[in-house]
Amino acid sequence: MDDLLDQVADYVALFLDAIALLIIVFGGIEAVILLGRLTIHKSATGVHLRAGFINFARWLIAALTFQLAADIVGTLIAPSWDDLGKLATVAVIRSFLTYFLDR
After folding, report:
1. Whole-prediction pTM value?
2. pLDDT at residue 16, rounded to an integer
3. Are the C-beta atoms of residues 64 and 97 closer than 8 Å to each other?
4. Are 64 and 93 in contact (CB under 8 A)?
5. Using the 8-state DSSP alphabet, how is residue 80 labeled?
């Protein structure tokens, strides 16, 4: 039974990591397109550029949320101290990013 739960947890964590990767790719493509448009249009200001980077940062926060969920699922079954340390690090980084981007 533990082996089955471990396998299910591995697949769920892999699925969540894949979602995080797709979010990063989509956000990155959107950011590159926006930067390309801002480069072409001479009327773009620094405000537009800043808004583009903040939007990309939101995509990264969404991806970090899914990665945190994947790490939580990965540590549900017999977590080691190393796994818990990594999980705590990701949680702290995500919290700081979210806090500062909301300001």
Report:
1. 0.81
2. 95
3. yes
4. yes
5. -
